[in-house]
Design brief:
Blueprint (H helix, E strand, L loop, with lengths): L1 H21 L4 E7 L7 H8 L2 H4 L2 E7 L3 H9 L5 E4 L2 H8 L6 E8 L4 E5 L15 E3 L6 H12 L9 E3 L7 H7 L4 E5 L2 H7 L4 E5 H5 L5 E6 H6 L1 H20 L2 H8 L8 H13 L11 H13 L10 H4 L3 H7 L2
Parallel strand pairs: 1-2, 1-3, 6-7, 6-8
Antiparallel strand pairs: 3-10, 4-10, 5-8, 5-9
Helix pairs in contact: 2-11, 11-16, 12-13
Subcellular location: Periplasm
Main location: periplasm
Protein name: ABC transporter substrate-binding protein
């Protein structure tokens, strides 16, 4: 009988211990990325190196394949945080949304596309594009707007000096380039390097180098979510900052090995060279702060593309730097 009492006491303490542990469970954040891209390497590093876990967060990552789907997921509470082009927050704000999306942490700070040609160019000049058959990106999306901005900087009217095609879905652009009679295309890594390795194309220029710093891909959340979950967003941003610093200090080969599971169909050497390409042109932001100069460059690019909405595009309304500043100053 005495043994049964002792067992009961032990069981009671065990249940109390498990209950106490349960109260310290990690907070779940549902994160939606606009596409699966090597361009987002620091995000995958934050997951694989356990930086989110260190902050007490369980991040559930899903790929939503498109800016419109990503923003729909965010505004309908299907996801808590979106990784998407910051131009989407401008479009939502222009629709007089009561609970609009706010950019709180920057991940990439240049365009991530490269100009790929079917034929080799030993001495490429931008004017070579005039009169060519060019496979473009989606109208109103950042790749296309940056592409047009760069072409105009080189005296090329993308809608009159080229035969510009924009009727292919993002995921099908590489295949369409290979099978069609297009001479040039804009591609992200590692697709550009894979095409080059297989002898199907040649990387001849970088739109990221040409366009300068822009808040190209940013983490954003609804205004209400930032207010109600400030502590968790701060933890999230701290984990991203740790990853950004780790990527900055780590060689491309180790980064590639760390995130290889996200790109199982891509050879490790291609991942490594692609990451090095992005690192060498400063595409990965080294901290999460989205500054006003970058924002102004973004709005200039959107305006040049004729996609600027009516009304003021307020940096103060659409960008929150307080969280990122707190994180990097701790």
């Amino acid at each position: 009988m005495r043994k049964m009492k002792i067992f009961g006491v032990i069981l009671c303490f065990t249940l109390l211990f498990l209950s106490a542990c349960g109260s310290n469970e990690n907070t779940t954040i549902k994160l939606g990325e606009v596409t699966r891209s090597l361009f987002y390497a620091p995000q995958y590093v934050a997951i694989e190196k356990g930086f989110f876990e260190e902050e007490g967060l369980d991040v559930e990552l899903q790929t939503l394949w498109g800016g419109d789907k990503t923003m729909t997921g965010l505004l309908s509470d299907g996801i808590d945080v979106a990784l998407v082009g910051s131009e989407t927050s401008i479009y939502v704000y222009a629709q007089d949304s009561n609970d609009y999306a706010v950019n709180f942490a920057q991940l990439t700070q240049t365009d991530g596309t490269f100009l790929v040609a079917k034929e080799a160019h030993s001495d490429f000049k931008w004017e070579d594009l005039k009169g060519s058959n060019f496979l473009g990106q989606r109208k109103g999306g950042m790749p296309q707007m940056v592409g047009e901005f760069v072409l105009k900087q080189h005296g090329i009217d993308p809608h009159n000096d080229l035969s510009l095609h924009q009727n292919i879905d993002f995921a099908n652009i590489p295949g369409a380039f290979l099978s069609g009679d297009y001479e040039y295309v804009q591609l992200f890594e590692p697709t550009a390097s894979v095409m080059e390795k297989e002898g199907n194309g040649h990387v001849i220029a970088s739109f990221g180098e040409e366009s300068g710093h822009v808040p190209y891909t940013v983490f954003m959340a609804k205004q209400s979510y930032l207010v109600d979950n400030k502590e968790n967003i701060e933890k999230f941003t701290r984990a991203i900052y740790k990853a950004q610093q780790w990527v900055q200090e780590t060689d491309s080969a180790e980064i590639a090995e760390t995130i290889q599971s996200y790109f199982e169909d891509v050879d490790l050497d291609i991942l490594t060279s692609s990451i090095e390409r992005y690192k060498s042109q400063g595409s990965f932001a080294t901290d999460p702060i989205l500054d006003e100069e970058e924002w102004n460059n973004l709005t200039n690019i959107i305006e040049e593309a004729g996609e600027i909405p009516d009304g003021e595009i307020s940096y103060e309304e659409l960008v929150n730097t307080e969280i990122a500043e707190e994180v990097i100053n701790q």
